[in-house]
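Entry 12.
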Amino acid sequence: MLFSELSFSELPAQIRIVLVNPSDPGNIGATARAMKTMGLQHLYLVAAEEFPHRHASARASNALDILAETVVVNSLEEALKGCHLVFGASARVRELHWVSLTPRAAAEKITEMPRQEVAIVFGRERCGLTNQELQQCHFQINIPANPQYNSLNLAAAVQIICYELRLAVLQQKEALLVNKREYARVEQLEYFYQHLHAVLINVEFLHASRSQQILDRLRRLFSRAELDETELNILCGILSAIQKKLSLI
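Predicted 3D structure (tokens):
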């Protein structure tokens, strides 16, 4: 499944991105763009210094709809109202040790939730979140950047975490599709192996001294493929076509 095939409604939770006291309106626009490319749409601003602003609109590109629906509040408490789970993004190690998760681990935790409100909070460009603000979060998200230079641009940090959210949802959907597959039955597979053996003998690919060893390897190869009934029918059709062609020679 392509990223573009996942719509807002398919996210497992109602996720809001919260920017605390952003000073650069361009970062607000870039955040909206980062969100939209990954399928998120709920942006909250806490005490933004300048918004709306033409720089925000310019950096948002085709995500102007997210800017138009952005919720602007005066405090973090207002931005988190109604949320069941809150993550605070922070690069700094704190004296009080919050449970710290990588973006991937946080995304996996969010995708396990039913339809509940989740907030991911990002701090100021200059100094991030305060300890008091982080205390309002259940978990800290730490992007494992270069320890010698771990200062990410605000919108870049949003992009990384939104990407991991999208990846987690897509993987979850793919796992559900795999679980719905109906694998070929044992007797169907055995018929296929007998058919394959006969064709390989006919085309003189197998030799008596090594035939069993090769057949065992082929069994392992097709076992790893976890064939479903349709795929097995295709393979059997190919074998039948080869036999038909041989009979005409």
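Annotation: The two ends are 44 Å apart (CA to CA). DSSP finds ten helices and seven strands in the chain.
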